[in-house]
Amino acid sequence: MRKLIFVLFVFAMGSVSIKAQMEAGIKGGLNLSDLQVFASGNSIGNEAFRTRPSYHIGTFVNSPLSDHFGIQVEVLFSNKGFKYETDSIGTLNASLNYLNFPVLFYYRPAKRIDIEFGPEFGYLVSGEDLVKSFDMGIDVGLRYHISKKFHAGVRYYQGFKFDMKKGDYNDGEGSPKYSNSTFQVSIGYNLPME
């Protein structure tokens, strides 16, 4: 799986490097993340989990492929996780640190607005032992270009379902599946390319 991620990342970087109007910069902002629980196709147990505020920071490379379409590749350090309410110990605050690699295609319907969509790959670098080290999902977002240097964006990430490494419970309907979900608000700054 790591080889696949590396190949996709190199391909995406190569794709964006073919255009002279390439942009690169830094970005960061707020994460609102939680864990969704699924079993037998039906969501269960979500009332126990609470949204956890955190942050993300990283870099991006962006290139238009035409007047209305383009691609953006990012490398983000993203703190995700969830809060879990229990009667016995109260609130458990689970912190999960990921290196995320979004590969986003965008459509620009107007001069300052981008609609973005694409896969996101993540590696867990530290956090709960129960969560698997690889995460993958889909990003959908909207970006507004405030000026030539600054942009602001909102994005929703929905992770694919996964099993915990250990400690799964059985509710009589089969072992549950889990997925990460994150809502992001960010500010980006384009670095000089000359």
Overview of this protein structure:
Helix content is 8%, strand content 64%. It is built from 1 helix and 10 strands. A hairpin with a 4-residue loop joins β8 (134-145) and β9 (150-159). The longest helix is centred in the N-terminal third of the chain and has 15 residues, at 2-16. It is mainly β and 194 residues long. The chain is elongated. It has a single domain, classed as Porin (Beta Barrel). The model is unreliable at 15-19 and 168-172 (pLDDT under 50). It has one helix spanning 2-16, and strands spanning 23-39, 42-43, 49-50, 52-64, 69-86, 90-110, 113-126, 134-145, 150-159, 177-191. The chain has an 8-stranded antiparallel beta barrel.
Strand content: over 45%
What is the radius of gyration? 18 Å
What's the mean pLDDT score?
A: 81
Indicate the CATH architecture.
Beta Barrel
Task: Count helical runs.
Answer: 1
Structural class: mainly beta
Q: Would you count the extended β strands for me? A: 10
Share of helix, binned: under 10%
The tally of domains stands at 1
- Gross morphology: elongated
Order of strands in the sheet with most strands: 1-4-5-6-7-8-9-10
List the helices and strands in order. Answer: HEEEEEEEEEE
Terminal-residue CA separation: 36 Å
Q: Largest sheet, described in full?
A: 8 strands, antiparallel, barrel
CATH class: Mainly Beta
What is the CATH third-level topology name?
A: Porin
Residue windows where pLDDT falls under 50 for at least 5 positions: 15-19, 168-172
